[in-house]
Amino acid sequence: MSAKYDYVRADKFTPESRVNWKSVGKVMSWKKEEEGVVDRVTLALDSGHKVYIYFLSHQTFRVRFNPDPKAPYVPTESPATVEDRIEAYDLRVKEENGVLQMNTDFMEVRVNLEKYALSVYRGSQLIHADPPDYNLVYIPRDLGEAVANFKMAPTNAQYYGFGEKGGASLDKRRVPKQHFYGQFGGKIYEKIPAALTFFNYDNFGYEVPDLTPD
Length: 214
What we know:
Layout: E1 22-23, E2 27-35, E3 38-45, E4 50-57, E5 60-65, E6 92-96, E7 99-103, E8 108-112, E9 118-122, E10 125-129, E11 136-139, E12 146-149, H1 182-185
GO molecular function: carbohydrate binding; catalytic activity
Organism: Paramuricea clavata (Red gorgonian)
Protein name: DUF4968 domain-containing
């Protein structure tokens, strides 16, 4: 029997509230292994869950996580890639000072083992990072089952979709405040920073000049 999932409105998907949401915790052990033609690094968490990190090339990787610790993981399939292994690469993995370091010739992916948090470096430059305390979070299956992943971004960062032209602003971190519902909306005269989620691509406003601030 397939699992039943309830429809959740945008204003009800609120991982930033931390109500019923749990963080993945400490990484108890890790293992590098092969899955088909790609390398996979498996992280075993103290909660009984696992995080899988797949390397597809020297500059591409994929993270998989399921909030149900008993969920079976089928062989990786992604519509984003035509082939599992995009190009040949050499993956070097080591643990040092409580950090798991996964290196290719192009990047270094780091995972804090004491409390899971992922970051990516190109040389000495940090190019991608989870917040250290609250990043990969989930609601357990008995409470509805959901997953969210928070990422760090500079205050003045902008986001433009690949060819996306809808809405009053091409920058999807600046959207009409009327876009937000419920607890996000606030009072009519208030302005709040835009939260960047895939819901930014619904309910566009076109003639509303009052955009969220930069």
